[in-house]
Amino acid sequence: MPALRRDPGTALTEALIVRGLNKTFAKPAVANLDLTVRAGELYALLGPNGAGKTTTLRMVAGLTKPDSGEISIFGVDARRDPAGAKALVAWAPDEAMIYDRLTPLEYLEFVAGLWSVDPKLAKTRAEQLLAQLGLADEARRRCEGFSRGMKQKVALAGALIHDPRLLILDEPLTGLDAAAARLVKDMLQARVDAGGTVILTTHILEVAERMADRIGIIAGGRLLAEGQLEDLRAQAGGAGGSSTLEDVFLQLTAESQPA
Ligand SMILES: Nc1ncnc2c1ncn2[C@@H]1O[C@H](COP(=O)(O)OP(=O)(O)OP(=O)(O)O)[C@@H](O)[C@H]1O
């Protein structure tokens, strides 16, 4: 497959282009997958358990090595320039990985250091993010006593600390209470409104239906459909004009099950 190339005369509108991506563990987890995420959109990657969502996004974030395929992030070829591509992306996994012995501020300053963010700027950003996420009072308390949702918010702040152009979140709303989920949704929406690009996975289809500009549905490591809800309805063939995302999702993923 030829390397991804961009006509220098055209404006950059794609945040992420994935072409022919493959990864096999004991069996294929991602199989010849193509995805396109446009700059400035919120893209929801949906699929049943084991569909290959996390594996795909880990490859995009440079955490899992693909067997083959192309990944381009804002025009940077991730295979030729892995460090350059990685610098544009932040990844927040579904299980928050933070250091219990650090306070949120210390953790955020540590992560900012990994990205070479100026320490003064890092402190200001860290305080802003923690305030936005309702953790200002906990900023100087060790994370060890935090609830799962609080840890998740700290991890989200960690993903945002270097102001990534492409933010990737795996199940960001799982385990959050209604108020915290609203807070995170509002933050993500504000980020997209300001021109940022967000990719998230979720099993909460109402969230995808309400928030996503475009949606990709995968199963068995393959892309089944991609686009806005009406595109997905059309791609599902039999789905009626008033069918919900849940109807379309269930129809497409049932069709993909081996007989
Ligand atoms: N490190 C690994 N070693 C072996 N198999 C793996 C590994 N990571 C993922 N897999 C397998 O790859 C397939 C896809 O898993 P993945 O975690 O990408 O799915 P997912 O769509 O994110 O699922 P879920 O919605 O359940 O989180 C599964 O069969 C899984 O068991």
Automatic annotation (TrEMBL):
It comes from the Bacteria. The keyword ATP-binding applies. The keyword Endoplasmic reticulum does not apply. SUPFAM superfamilies: P-loop containing nucleoside triphosphate hydrolases (SSF52540). GO terms for molecular function: ATP binding; ATP hydrolysis activity. It holds the Pfam family ABC_tran. InterPro entries: AAA+_ATPase (IPR003593), ABC_transporter-like_ATP-bd (IPR003439), ABC_transporter_ATP-binding (IPR050763), P-loop_NTPase (IPR027417). Keywords: ATP-binding, Nucleotide-binding, Transport. Residues 12-245 form the ABC transporter domain. This is ABC transporter.
